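R.M. (postdoc): so does anyone remember the format we settled on? I'll just put the C-alpha cells first.
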C-alpha cells in the first residue's frame, strides 16, 4: 500500500516538474530577475548585481530548477517518436547552456593586474575577495598565513562578524567591514608610558582668525609641521640637562666651527670645536673622554655609509666623535649635526651613549619656527626663532598662547606626555551613479595567547594596509589586501601605448606589448594586448582595460583577467539550440510526423505484415 502511494506521489511530482505551466512560471520569473539585475547593475554597480543576483545561492537554485523542468519535460515524452529529433536536440542544448551558466556564476574568476614598463607579474588580484595576512616577525622562514573572505558590496551591520578560528597560534575575527571608508586619526594617552609626546594646537593668522587645528606627535627624531612661513617643531630630550642648550644657546661669538655641548650625569660642558679638534676631552671624574675627530662643513653620506664633506661651505655642519668608555678597548662612534642636534647613533649601536651632544654652529641660523622640547620629567618648554635669533618662552602648558613667526599665534590645546595614535574609520557614502571611492576598511580582533588587540586596516593602503602588533609571543604583522591568484605564466610589460583623440581631448585607445614567458610549455614570445585584441593563454583571457598614472607621472597598464569555465558549454548549448530549431523547422516543412530515427525491428515486422 505504502509503495503504491509512494509511486503515485512520485508520478504526480514528476508530472508537476515536467509541466508546461511550471516552465512558463520559471521563464517569467527568470526574465523578471534578469531585468531587475540589469537595473541594479546600472544604478548601483556590477558588484551589487553579482552579489545579490548572479552569484547568490537562490539564483543558482532557480537555474537548477529550470534545468530540472527541462529535463523532466524531455524524459516524460520518451520514446520521442512524436516529438522529433529537433525537440530532443533543443532541450539538450538548453540543459548544456544552463550547465555552462551555473559553472560561470559559481566558478568564474575575474580580476585585475597593473604593471609599469619593465615590470613583470605572475599573479593578479580578485577585486571582490579580501585577504587578511599574518606573519610572525620572529619566524621569517615560516610562510605568512592567509585568511580569505568575500565581504560583499555593502557595509556590514554592527552585529555581523566573521570568526576565522585559530591557526598557528593566531585567532582572527572581523568585527566591522566598511565598503568605502575614510580614516580619522586621534592621539590618546599611552598608559604604558613608552609613547612619545603629542600636542594638539591651533594656529591663528595675523588677523586673529583660527586657520587650523592639528596634532603633532614626536617620534625618535622629533616631528615637524609647516604652515606657510610658520614651522612648528616638537622634540624629546633624552636627558634633562639638554634644556640648557634649548633655552640658553651660546651667543654669536662661537668661532667659525661652532661650539659642542657635552652632557654627562646631569652636567653640561661646552667647548669650542676649532681649538679642541683632535683632542680627548675628559668629562666628570675623567674616566670618560670625548674626542672631536673630524669637522665636516657640508656632510653627506657616501655609498659606503660614511660621511664626507662636499665642499667647505657650511651648509650641513657635522662632527664625528669618539667616546672612550672605561673598560672598553674600542671607542664608541658618535656624530653631532648642527641642524639636527638630537640626532645620534644610539639606534645603530643598540645601546644609548652615556654622553649626549648638542652641536651649535653659526651657519645653522634658526628659521622662522616655534620649537617645543619635552624633558624626561614630562615638562614642555618652548622657544621661538624670529629674525635669526631664539627667544625663550620657558615652560608652556595647556591653554598657553605663543607668538609664532610672521604674526601667527599658536595656542596649545592639549598636551600628552606619552601618547599613542588611535585610528578609526567611518563609512563614506558614494553619490548616486558614483562607483569609485576610497578603499574598504575592516576592524580586526587579533588574539595570540593571552594578548587580544583590535586594529583597523584599510585595504591596500600605504599607511593603514599593514600594522605591526606587539604580542607576548613577539611582533606580529597583520595586513589587508586583495586575494591574489597565480597566472601560471609570467608577463613583462615591454611597451605601453596610450592614444589620444584628435586635439588631445580624451583617451582613444590603449595597447600593451608584453613578453609572455611560460616555462612549463617552453613559450617566450612578444604579444600585443589592445582594447579589441585580448590575449588568451591557458585558462585566462586578458583584456586591456585602461591605465593608471602614478604621482611621479609614470603610466602603468591595467589588464582585466577573466576565466570562464562555462564558456565552452554555453557556446555548445547555443549551437545545439540553433541546430534543434532548424531540425524542427525542416521537419515541419517536409512533413515529418514521426521520429526520424531508424525504426526498431518490432516496428519494421509489424509494418511488413500490414503491407502483406
Amino acid at each position: 500500500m505504502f509503495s503504491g502511494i509512494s509511486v503515485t506521489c512520485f508520478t504526480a511530482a514528476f508530472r508537476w516538474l515536467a509541466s508546461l505551466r511550471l516552465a512558463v512560471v520559471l521563464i517569467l520569473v527568470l526574465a523578471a530577475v534578469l531585468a531587475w539585475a540589469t537595473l541594479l547593475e546600472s544604478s548601483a554597480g556590477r558588484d551589487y548585481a553579482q552579489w545579490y543576483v548572479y552569484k547568490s545561492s537562490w539564483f543558482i537554485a532557480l537555474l537548477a530548477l529550470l534545468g530540472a523542468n527541462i529535463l523532466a519535460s524531455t524524459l516524460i515524452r520518451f520514446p520521442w517518436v512524436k516529438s522529433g529529433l529537433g525537440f530532443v536536440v533543443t532541450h539538450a542544448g538548453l540543459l548544456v547552456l544552463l550547465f555552462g551558466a551555473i559553472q560561470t556564476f559559481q566558478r568564474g574568476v575575474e580580476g585585475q593586474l597593473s604593471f609599469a614598463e619593465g615590470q613583470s607579474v605572475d599573479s593578479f588580484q580578485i577585486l571582490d575577495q579580501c585577504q587578511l595576512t599574518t606573519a610572525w616577525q620572529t619566524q621569517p622562514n615560516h610562510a605568512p598565513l592567509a585568511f580569505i573572505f568575500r565581504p560583499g558590496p555593502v557595509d556590514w551591520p554592527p552585529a555581523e562578524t566573521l570568526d576565522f578560528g585559530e591557526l598557528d597560534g593566531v585567532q582572527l575575527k572581523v568585527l566591522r567591514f566598511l565598503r568605502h571608508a575614510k580614516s580619522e586619526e586621534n592621539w590618546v594617552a599611552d598608559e604604558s608610558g613608552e609613547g612619545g609626546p603629542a600636542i594638539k594646537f591651533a594656529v591663528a593668522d595675523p588677523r586673529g582668525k583660527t586657520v587650523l587645528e592639528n596634532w603633532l606627535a614626536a617620534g625618535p627624531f622629533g616631528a615637524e609641521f609647516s604652515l606657510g612661513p610658520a614651522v612648528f617643531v616638537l622634540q624629546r630630550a633624552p636627558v634633562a640637562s639638554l634644556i640648557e642648550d634649548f633655552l640658553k644657546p651660546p651667543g654669536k661669538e662661537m668661532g667659525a666651527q661652532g661650539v659642542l655641548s657635552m652632557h654627562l650625569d646631569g652636567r653640561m660642558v661646552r667647548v669650542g670645536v676649532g681649538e679642541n679638534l683632535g683632542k680627548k676631552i675628559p668629562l666628570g671624574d675623567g674616566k670618560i673622554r670625548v674626542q672631536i675627530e673630524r669637522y665636516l662643513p657640508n656632510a653627506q653620506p657616501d655609498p659606503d655609509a660614511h660621511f664626507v664633506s662636499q665642499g667647505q661651505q657650511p651648509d650641513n655642519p657635522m662632527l664625528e666623535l669618539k667616546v672612550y668608555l672605561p673598560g672598553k678597548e674600542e671607542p664608541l662612534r658618535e656624530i653631532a649635526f648642527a641642524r639636527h642636534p638630537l640626532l645620534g647613533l644610539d639606534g645603530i649601536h643598540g645601546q644609548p651613549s652615556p654622553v649626549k651632544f648638542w652641536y651649535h654652529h653659526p651657519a645653522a641660523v634658526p628659521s622662522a619656527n616655534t620649537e617645543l622640547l619635552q624633558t624626561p620629567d614630562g615638562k614642555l618648554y618652548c622657544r621661538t626663532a624670529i629674525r635669526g635669533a631664539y627667544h625663550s618662552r620657558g615652560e608652556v602648558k595647556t591653554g598657553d598662547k605663543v607668538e609664532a613667526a610672521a604674526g601667527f599665534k599658536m595656542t596649545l590645546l592639549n598636551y600628552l606626555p606619552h601618547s599613542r595614535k588611535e585610528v578609526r574609520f567611518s563609512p563614506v557614502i558614494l553619490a548616486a551613479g558614483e562607483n569609485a571611492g576610497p578603499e574598504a576598511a575592516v576592524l580586526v580582533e587579533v588574539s595570540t595567547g593571552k594578548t587580544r588587540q583590535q586594529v583597523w586596516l584599510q585595504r591596500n593602503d600605504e599607511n593603514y594596509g599593514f600594522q605591526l602588533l606587539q604580542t607576548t609571543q613577539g611582533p606580529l604583522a597583520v595586513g589587508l589586501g586583495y586575494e591574489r591568484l597565480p597566472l601560471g605564466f609570467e608577463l613583462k610589460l615591454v611597451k605601453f601605448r596610450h592614444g589620444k583623440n584628435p586635439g588631445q581631448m580624451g583617451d582613444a585607445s590603449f595597447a600593451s606589448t608584453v613578453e609572455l614567458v611560460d616555462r612549463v610549455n617552453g613559450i617566450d614570445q612578444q604579444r600585443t594586448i589592445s582594447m579589441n585584441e585580448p590575449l588568451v593563454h591557458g585558462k585566462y583571457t586578458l583584456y586591456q582595460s585602461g591605465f593608471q598614472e602614478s604621482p611621479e607621472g609614470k603610466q602603468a597598464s591595467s589588464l582585466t583577467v577573466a576565466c570562464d569555465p562555462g564558456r565552452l558549454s554555453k557556446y555548445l548549448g547555443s549551437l545545439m539550440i540553433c541546430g534543434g530549431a532548424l531540425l524542427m523547422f525542416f521537419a515541419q516543412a517536409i512533413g515529418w510526423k514521426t521520429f526520424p530515427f531508424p525504426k526498431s525491428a518490432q516496428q519494421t515486422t509489424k509494418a511488413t505484415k500490414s503491407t502483406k
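R.M.: ...and that's the designed sequence above, right after the C-alpha cells. Also worth knowing: The chain has three domains: 2-108+569-611, 112-181+418-563, 198-414. The two ends are 48 Å apart (CA to CA).
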